Amino acid sequence: MSRLARLEGSARFLALVKLANVGLVLTWGFAVTFVFVRVLPIAEFQAFLLLVAFGNFTISSEFGLTSIIYARLRRHWLNNGVDDDDGGFRLEEMGVLFLFLGLLVMGASLILLVALAAGWLSTRLPLLFLLFFLSACLNLPALLAKRALAAVDGNFLWEGLDCARRVVTIGLLLAMLGGMDPRLSVALQLGVSIVVIGYAIGHVHRRLDMKRSHWLAFRVGGGHVRAHYLRDIGASAAFTVSDIVAYNAPYFTIALATSDPRPMLVFDFFFKMSRSLSMLVRATVEAALPRITRAYHAGDRVRLRQLLGRALGAAMIFAIGLSALLLLAGNRLFAILFDGRATIDRADIILIILALFALTILCVSVYVQAALGRFGELLARSLPFLAGSLASAPLALLLLPGRFDLAFLGFYALTLLIVAGVHLVSLRRLARA
């Protein structure tokens, strides 16, 4: 076994590499806010936050198909390329998925252009908004490359490429503060991402011994998809829609409830904290997924329970660490991030911490069960989250209009606590199955 293969098989080393990349991803995410809140007027920045939310909707609207590909390709790879039935993974599925992702980006871009032309998204910088949106949409093929490489035990290549991409794009972001035209900066970021993702997809092509015809066999691939796993696609699509609405709807419900920018900035702060935590948890879970998937497909229940317990324990360490950071420096971090344009209360921070602990359990459950192809289970457990997320802002406005921001966070945190309990029961059932 080569040294690289041994490192790939080490859950601890893989976790460290993934966490290093997560650090860069988080730095990039905070840099976006840090830079754009300074180079844009506050009204433009509020519109920019809506653009980011729309981008999140678009990216998530691949309906979990990359998760389905991971689950199917992982089983195919563990079986040494031999599936136990004619409904197993076929290389033509990759081309069908790319076609869908391309159509999704084109459709969303058209919607954005209409919104900009009609004034629904008001900005004096339409080209900047469009370029940033396209740059964000490149995360769709990036996600496909990441999960395809992970399924065939090729995590390290992706992490290395993505680290390089993040370092360059962070530098280009910060260059705006030095006077670089924001449109030029985002356009260059777009070009760097295209090169890196293209190389990663090329490696997937070679690793799977694919031919060009596999990418263009839409009829064969589409027929296979239609015949053998439409049920998974339907459940995954419904779950993904429910999930992205639950996570991103508060941006829009808050905007409808009040024109005060503070509640949206507070929620955006929570959203960034939750994204930071979820990335850390994902890195930990993904490092354990090779072993978790092997134990699950081999029917090793004892090993599966052990690995799930370790994943939850490691994820909680990150939740505790982030909570301590917020208690000690949450106010200062908020002020730095949003250039002192609003303040955050201790009560807000406490509610955010409660929500983050609940979110940790939810994330571990979603990442593990999606990798195992249990999309029907995830769909059933996503509906309470969707209902609570949509209702939080209206209930806060109705019951406590004078403290709308605090009431909203309270209802949203309560929703996450209830949903975390539901997911914890689901994980226990999985471990005992």
Layout of strands and helices, then pairs:
Elements: H1 3-8, H2 11-39, H3 42-60, H4 65-78, H5 92-118, H6 126-137, H7 139-151, H8 155-175, H9 182-207, H10 212-216, H11 218-228, H12 230-257, H13 261-298, H14 301-337, H15 346-371, H16 375-399, H17 404-432
Describe the structure in your own words:
Helices cover 85% and strands 0% of the residues. It has two domains: 14-228, no CATH class; 250-433, no CATH class. It has 17 helices and no strands. It has helices at 3-8, 11-39, 42-60, 65-78, 92-118, 126-137, 139-151, 155-175, 182-207, 212-216, 218-228, 230-257, 261-298, 301-337, 346-371, 375-399, 404-432. The mean pLDDT is 85.
